[in-house]
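From the pipeline queue, job 12 of 40. The input is one protein chain; the requested action is below.

Action: predict structure.
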Amino acid sequence: MRKPIARTLPTRLTWAERGRLEKHMTKSGSNAKKQRIRAHAHHTGLTYREAARTMDSADLEREARIAKMREWAHRPEALADERGWYLRHLFEEGDHLPEYVKACLYVLLDRLGTGKYIDPCGVQCTLNDLVAATGLAIRTVEEGLNVARAHGWVHFTAAHEYELRVPSEQIGMYESFLSKVSDPVRDRSAYHWLQERIARSRHNTEE
């Protein structure tokens, strides 16, 4: 059985959590940080400089916490477990995929854990890297990745940044979340009316 590594860790960091992890602060990023400092100063009654020092200290602590979480999630045995689990599903559930698509996914899988976020399923890889590693034409790689994304095997998260995902895992996870909503219907009359419309539409399409 697969160890629930990815499920126990956040796959995305908010802007506040990135903090000092941002290596290249753009002008807009700098302005956003100043706004956060001003808001913190206003909320706490501190001066701007005091608020900035407080936030810097909190950012350093957050950075250390994130680094420890990433180190734990990217242990060699954890990455090996993720790779094996993904391969098993790819060879079974993804057996119908075109060979070119599976070739691209297999190469991305070799780079498991190279993404910039905590999630070990993150991958960094350029199109040129994929072309060199697969021997495919660049157009084949581009369309192959599009097919993989359409089937839910990979998500595009940034330039040259991907997340490898097993479609059935995502479906099961979100269906579980949906089933646990305590009060799913707010307006029962509106929902009942919609269900009647759906039933009529189904009946009309089946005629």
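Job complete. Residues 9 and 33 are 26 Å apart (CA to CA).
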